[in-house]
């Protein structure tokens, strides 16, 4: 059973991450950037000359690792954990290379009840070491499917406000974002080496016909589509992005990003054309 007090008090300490332009380019390729290398706006994401990172790269920098699995005292059933939602808030533009300090903590731990699991919010601050300034804050929302019922003995936090759904009407803009058959092979080079995304035998054991794309890759692909369409290709134009990962994507799928621009906010969701499956929901970004 989850130890509420120990889990809620968990802190990563400072995680120092030195990265180069090569890492920034690999991340961009992992989320499908520069499918048209003749487009100068796309080229900025993959060419060291005037290189600019996507905001969602913040999710893979200065990660505290698989602490939920490695710290047995917390009592988290890592095998039943699912990454459900992700947000990024930019306080400054990510440097294309440099050293960032990650500071992660458990910000909320909600008990949904015995047999219903729990919800854990993990917040990560990214600080620029050289400038000593806060660059970004990201939040993971993790569904702990095997860990409900702990509050009877130890208490729990109140649930976060429910995410706002997208408008109940046809989208104002639809963006088609193809993925490559080797998209997961590229994306994993940014740090998530889970064999579910590359090993057919592991994928089959998990109930999938073939390896699936990382949820954060789908999230990054959506970010790229928003930046290209609503920020004239400039990642600095996107201030926040949040979405729920509602279904898996297979490498090679075609993602259709459905958008509703609303002043400085953009509501969005994404579906896979081949299966008409909603893969991102409750998406909101600000410019």
Structure, explained:
This protein has 287 residues and is of the alpha+beta class. The longest helix has 16 residues. The protein has a ten-stranded antiparallel β-sheet with strand order 1-3-4-5-2-7-10-9-8-6. Helices cover 19% and strands 34% of the residues. A hairpin with a 2-residue loop joins strand 8 and strand 9. It is built from eight helices and ten strands.
Task: Based on the model shown, name its key terms.
alpha+beta; Thiol Ester Dehydrase, Chain A; 34% strand; globular
User: What composes the largest sheet?
Assistant: 10 strands, antiparallel
Annotated CATH homologous superfamily of the largest domain:
Hotdog Thioesterase
Uncertain runs: none
Task: Give the beta-strand count.
Answer: 10
Q: How do the SSEs run, as a string of H and E?
A: HEHHHEEEEHEHHHEEEE
**Which range best describes the helical content: under 10%, 10-25%, 25-40%, 40-55%, 55-70% or over 70%?**
10-25%
User: What is the name of the CATH topology of the largest domain?
Assistant: Thiol Ester Dehydrase, Chain A
Secondary-structure content class: alpha+beta
Assembly state of the chains shown: single chain
The side-by-side strand order for the widest beta sheet comes to 1-3-4-5-2-7-10-9-8-6
End-to-end Cα distance:
42 Å
- Percent in strands: 25-35%
Overall pLDDT? 96
Helix count equals: 8
What is the CATH architecture annotation of the largest domain? Roll
Shape verdict: globular
The CATH class name of the largest domain reads Alpha Beta
Number of domains: 2
What is the CA-atom radius of gyration, in angstroms?
Answer: 19 Å
